[in-house]
Amino acid sequence: MKREDTNPVVDRLAVILDEHCRLMEALDAAEIDALAGAIVDARSVFFSGQGRSGLMTRALAIRLMHLGIKVHVAGEPSTPAIGAKDLLIAVSASAGTKATLEHVRIARNSGARVALVSSKKPEPDAADLGLTLPARSAIPTVQHAGSLFEQAFLLVGDALAWHIQTQLGVDERLMNERHANLQ
């Protein structure tokens, strides 16, 4: 879409959207399908992420809760112990965030499956499955720090939630009934 007038914010947004289009083309459909299957099969889904990545994990946790999936965020006071039949989705662009890696270690020692979402393919022994969002590793970005990775996790997460919603046949009305009413 060609705009007649020019605006620096709109121009920047066009650059950011282009980065997302390139990142989308680099996604591995098998990784996405494996993560969707692991979420559906899990007794409970736990999330771990720090900083802005942590905020994005909370957004996906909310969306999965709307689908009727039992979700928890590591570090929250009401989060129970993780165990066998559970899934930890650990989100770290660098795959090296200490707190997140400690959550991975605890989850694995407790018999839970681990999915690592990172900007590069995880080492085979780092997690049971991975989702690579190649921000900065394969897709260059003009954005600051991990912005492209965090934005991509939010966008891919919403698309993944829609895919799971379709697989499970969850009606939009039911999702709306689960929406928070104590905000």
Give a written overview of the molecule:
By secondary structure, this protein is an alpha/beta fold. 49% of the residues lie in helices and 13% in strands. It has helices spanning 8-26, 29-41, 51-66, 98-109, 147-168, 172-178, and strands at 45-49, 71-73, 87-91, 113-118, 129-132. Strands 2-1-3-4-5 form a five-stranded parallel sheet, sandwiched between helices. The radius of gyration is 17 Å and the shape is globular. The model has no long low-confidence stretch (mean pLDDT 95).
Features:
single chain, 183 residues, alpha/beta, 5-stranded parallel beta sheet
The major sheet is characterized as: 5 strands, parallel
Measured on Cα atoms, how large is the radius of gyration? 17 Å
Order of helices and strands: HHEHEEHEEHH
Which range best describes the helical content: under 10%, 10-25%, 25-40%, 40-55%, 55-70% or over 70%?
40-55%
Based on helices, strands and strand pairing, what is the structural class? Answer: alpha/beta
Which regions have little confidence, pLDDT < 50, spanning 5+ residues?
none
Instruction: Provide mean pLDDT, rounded.
Output: 95
Q: Overall 3D geometry?
A: globular
Oligomer: single chain
